[in-house]
Each structure stands twice: as structure tokens, then as C-alpha cells.
Design goal:
By secondary structure, the protein is an alpha+beta fold. Helix content is 46%, strand content 17%. The chain contains 8 helices and 5 strands. Strands 1, 2, 3, 4 and 5 form a 5-stranded antiparallel β-sheet that branches. The longest helix has 34 residues. The two termini are 31 Å apart.
Length: 281
């Protein structure tokens, strides 16, 4: 478990209590910043559209994960309350089948939790995995995690610039067959992501065109990188793989167990090897 602050501990379910907001009682309402759990069903011309149904969807109001006009309707609702409203999807909405259309939504608010920052004390340190509750040890771990995150983001930015430079300086047409395979992979990944958020996606039609550009870029990069690696002998070496695994493991409470976890799965090691190869490139 990462010792960075787990978001779930920073929200307190306030059902049955009475506070300024977010307690789910009859005299209060959800506000921006609250985490709400909702069920929703959307219809266009009286028919439920694919992807328009969600159960136990948790979202923090104001973060922008949902359409602004949708979130604005949830603000002010009370726990157990239900609401019906119309929403027009933007013309440039990524779901082409609903873009520019008006839907009627039925929403039920099932739970509200308001953010509450706990005191930074021994109990808080123990909650984050510091066994003896030493606050200074906790601060040290948080600082180390933040430093690793800074390094990761800088490297990611540099890598993106390099990858773009490789594409810009290489004349290459991505084979249609490979692009089609990549589109299918991206569609499957999107469905899995939606399901993890409580949105039903069985047999959800997704227009492959919205993934076309990103899929072409991935295919081109894959072909270019393969040639760069071959021409410059940049294959991942065992010691590089182990160093990368160790680095990944350091963000967890029991690094040695994480290292063992990686080496128990060839698939997980292949993911690490791909990361090493990109670093080499």
C-alpha cells in the first residue's frame, strides 16, 4: 500500500449527523467538494441509451469527472432524494451517438460524504502505515514519495517530447490491420474503466473513430521504437529490470513483497521491461 494519503480516509460519511452540509439529513444538501454516490438512468426520446445507466457511481462534486451541467443538478440534492432533469450533450462530446442530443436523466442520491481533514498526529501516522506513529517518519516518507512523483512527472514529460520528436521525424504509414487491433484494445480498456466506475457497459457500442488518431500514434511509435531498439541494442537488461522493480516497490509498505509479486508474473515483468526499453530509448 502506498504511504501517500489514501483519499478514502479523507472523507467521513456523515449520515445521521448534523453539520453545515453533507450529512444526508432532511435539512441539508450536497455541496461542491462532497463525495456523492448516485444511481442514474438517461433516456433519449424515451429510450435508454448505451452508457446512460450507472449504479453506485461515486464522484466528488466539482472535480469535473461528470459533465458540468450534470453535476450542477446533483448539487443541492439530499441523501435518498431523486431528481429528473434534461441535459443537452455538447456537440463535440466524445460519444458521437449522443453528441448534440438532449437526454432526460433520473438520478437518485444514495450517500453524501463531506471532506474532513484529520489532525496530523500519531494516530494519523499509524493509519498511513507508520507502526510507531512517529509523525516525523511519516513526513519523511511523504517527502520521499513526493520527490519520486516529481521525478516521474519530469521523466514522463521529457519522454513525451522525445516520442513526439521521433514521430515528427519519421515518415511512416501505420498498417491498417495493426491500427484496428489497437482500436479494439483501447475500446476494451475504456469499457473496463467505465465498469470500474459503476457504469454498465455490456455490449456498449463505441465508435472506433474516436480512438483512431491515438491508435495510429501508438502503432507508429511501436514500430519506430522497435527499430530504434534493434539498431542501437537497447533491449532491457536484467539488472535494469530489477532496478526498475525496486524503484516501483519503494512506494509501498512492504517493498520486498512487491518485488516478489512482480517476479511471480512474466506478464508483470514484461510491463517493467517495456518501461526500461522506453527509458533506454
Amino acid at each position: 500500500r502506498s504511504t501517500l494519503f489514501p483519499y478514502t480516509t479523507l472523507f467521513r460519511s456523515t449520515k445521521g449527523e448534523h453539520h453545515a452540509h453533507g450529512d444526508g439529513g432532511a435539512d441539508v444538501a450536497a455541496l461542491n467538494g462532497d463525495r456523492v454516490t448516485i444511481d442514474f438512468e438517461g433516456k433519449i426520446d424515451g429510450v435508454v441509451f448505451e452508457g446512460g445507466v450507472g449504479t453506485d457511481v461515486a464522484v466528488v462534486l466539482g472535480e469535473g469527472r461528470l459533465l458540468k451541467d450534470f453535476e450542477s443538478q446533483v448539487v443541492g440534492m439530499q441523501t435518498g432524494g431523486a431528481k429528473s432533469f434534461e441535459l443537452r450533450f455538447p456537440d463535440d462530446y466524445h460519444g458521437k451517438e449522443v453528441a448534440g442530443k438532449t437526454a432526460t436523466f433520473e438520478v437518485k442520491l444514495k450517500q453524501v460524504a463531506e471532506p474532513k481533514l484529520p489532525p496530523v498526529d500519531a494516530d494519523f501516522a499509524k493509519m498511513l502505515g507508520v507502526a510507531d506513529g512517529n509523525v516525523e517518519t511519516m513526513r519523511k516518507e511523504v517527502r520521499e514519495n513526493l520527490e519520486r512523483e516529481v521525478k516521474r512527472r519530469i521523466n514522463a514529460k521529457v519522454k513525451d517530447q522525445i516520442m513526439q520528436a521521433l514521430i515528427d521525424n519519421t515518415q511512416l504509414v501505420a498498417p491498417n490491420s495493426l491500427v484496428a487491433i489497437e482500436v479494439e484494445r483501447m475500446q476494451a480498456s475504456m469499457r473496463q474503466e467505465l465498469e470500474s466506475r459503476g457504469v454498465k457497459s455490456e455490449a456498449m457500442p463505441m465508435d472506433g473513430a474516436i480512438f483512431e488518431s491515438a491508435a495510429q500514434r501508438r502503432v507508429k511509435l511501436g514500430l519506430i521504437l522497435a527499430e530504434v531498439v534493434r539498431a542501437n541494442n537497447l533491449q532491457a537488461k536484467p539488472e535494469q529490470v530489477r532496478a526498475m522493480v525496486d524503484e516501483q516497490a519503494q512506494t509501498y509498505e512492504a517493498p520486498e513483497q512487491v518485488v516478489k509479486w512482480y517476479y511471480q508474473s512474466p506478464e508483470r515483468l514484461r510491463d517493467i521491461e517495456s518501461m526500461v526499453v522506453e527509458e533506454n530509448v
